[in-house]
Each structure stands twice: as structure tokens, then as C-alpha cells.
Amino acid sequence: MSKRFHRAGRRSSVNTVVADLHTHTTNSDGEMTLDDVPVAAAEAGVDVVAVTDHDRVHPDLDTPWEDRDGVRIVHGIELRVESPAGRVDLLGYGVEPTPALEREIERLQTDRARRGARIIENVESRLDVDLDLEGRAGIGRPNIARAVADATDMTVQEVFDELIGNDGPCYVAREVPDFETGRELLAEACGLVGLAHPLRYDDPAAALELCADLDAVERFYPYGGDPDPAPVAEAVDRYDLVATGGSDAHDHTLGRAGLDADGLARFCAAAGLPDP
């Protein structure tokens, strides 16, 4: 299957974000449908978008990339794994699913549905509310948080902070693959595999050490609190990594972080794609 990209029109401004390589759709826990992606991209002035749904590939993306309404969409995946640094997320780009990856996705989605149902039950019992939501493949905590916000006077952030965050009373952990298994599955199915949002983890330094076995790292990301980006830049140099970037959008707002034209050209070259 070809991994070639068609050219897409893009601006030449050096620091302009032209590629948002970390977004989510309703296939997992995002608010956008696939048809919404080109609209959101146009509104943000972004030419390239990677759809990286949690623990699953998008059923309506049959190739590693495609053009939709003038926007280049890269088929990706975000896979959570258990590592020596704790649980981290890997981003795979240019997905061509292998049977092994498909089997693991099926297992993960069964676990997601069961886990989602348990969190929903915990929240409904604790708050004495009916969320009108069921566990299903693709469900994530943002889906549940939005449902709670709709049913109560809590904000989505308050739901995470007080109920379903990792230390919350309604939290339920998922069963995820170990780092090496996840890395190998993605390496066989994707053109490029990297570490997502390294400064979000409890131990960023330990997480960045994992990059020794990866192709890339998410260097540009809309962190809150303005953390020091130097460790990520140092990891790029130390491990000869490709720098990726994206907004991690679960809503319709793209381009909050991403790659400029030069960064996109390096990304495409490293993934075996022609310079756009």
C-alpha cells in the first residue's frame, strides 16, 4: 500500500503551524467526526492533520493518508503502554494495520468498554445521577466527563479533578500492553513511532529515556503551566529524534500546537513520505 502524500497548499511562514499531528475523533473520545476534521482544519489554517484515536485505528481511513476537502489527513493511533517510567502514550503515524495490531486493538477495546461501564456505574452511584451513557468500544474518560458536566453543575475539569482522575474515587485502571510490545506492534504497522507529550508524565526524564528505542517525540504540545521545553529538545539531539507536535484536540479547535513547514518536511522525510 502506498504511503505517498499528494501535495496540499500551505503557507510559507516559517513559524506558522501547518500540521497538527495529534487529534481525536468520535471514534475514540473526541467530539469531531471524520467529516468535521477538514472544517476544523480550515478554520485553524492547518493543512495537515493526523487522526490519532486512542487504542484504535479509524474505520473510515483505509490508507496511511488521504486528502479530504483540501486537507491532508494522516492515519495515526495513540497507544497507551506500561513502561519503566510508568504509563505513557505512543503515537504511530501512517498506519497500515497488521493482524497483530488488530488483535491487540480488539482486546483493548473490549477492556475499554468494560472499564468505561465501571467508571460510569461508580459516578452514577456516587452522584446519584443517570448519565444516559454506556460502556462501548472507543469510550474514554473525556466522554464520561462531558456527560457528567451535562448532568450536573460540574465542569469537565472538576469531574477529572474530583472523580475520575487517576487518583479519583471513581477511577478504574485499564489493562495495557507493556512498552516493548506496544512499540513493536506500532513499528510493524506505522511509518514513524514516537512518544506523546513527554512533559505530562510524573517523571519526564524517565519517560524521555524511552526515546532511545523510538523514532520521534512530541516536542510541540499545548502544556498548561509553561513547563521547561529544554529536556525535550535535548532528547531530540541525544537520540536523533524526529520532532512532532500537535494539539491533542478532543474538541473542534486545531492548531494550538504543531509543526511549521520545515518541521513537516522533516517529519515526512523520516516517515518515508515525499516532501509536501
Protein described:
The protein is of the alpha/beta class. It folds into 2 domains: 19-96 and 190-270, Metal-dependent hydrolases (TIM Barrel), CATH 3.20.20.140; 105-164, no CATH class. The chain contains 8 helices and 8 strands. It has helices at 36-44, 99-127, 141-151, 156-164, 179-189, 204-209, 230-239, 261-270; strands spanning 19-23, 48-54, 65-68, 71-83, 86-93, 192-195, 216-220, 242-245. Strands 1, 2, 3, 4, 5, 6, 7 and 8 form an 8-stranded mixed beta sheet that branches. Helix 7 (230-239) links the parallel strand 7 and strand 8. Helix 3 (141-151) packs across helix 4. The longest helix is centred in the middle third of the chain and has 29 residues, at 99-127. It is globular. Mean pLDDT is 93; it is low at 1-14.
Instruction: Specify the structural class.
Output: alpha/beta
Overall geometry: globular
Distance between the termini: 19 Å
Portion in beta strands: 15-25%
CATH topology of the largest domain: TIM Barrel
Task: State Rg.
Answer: 18 Å
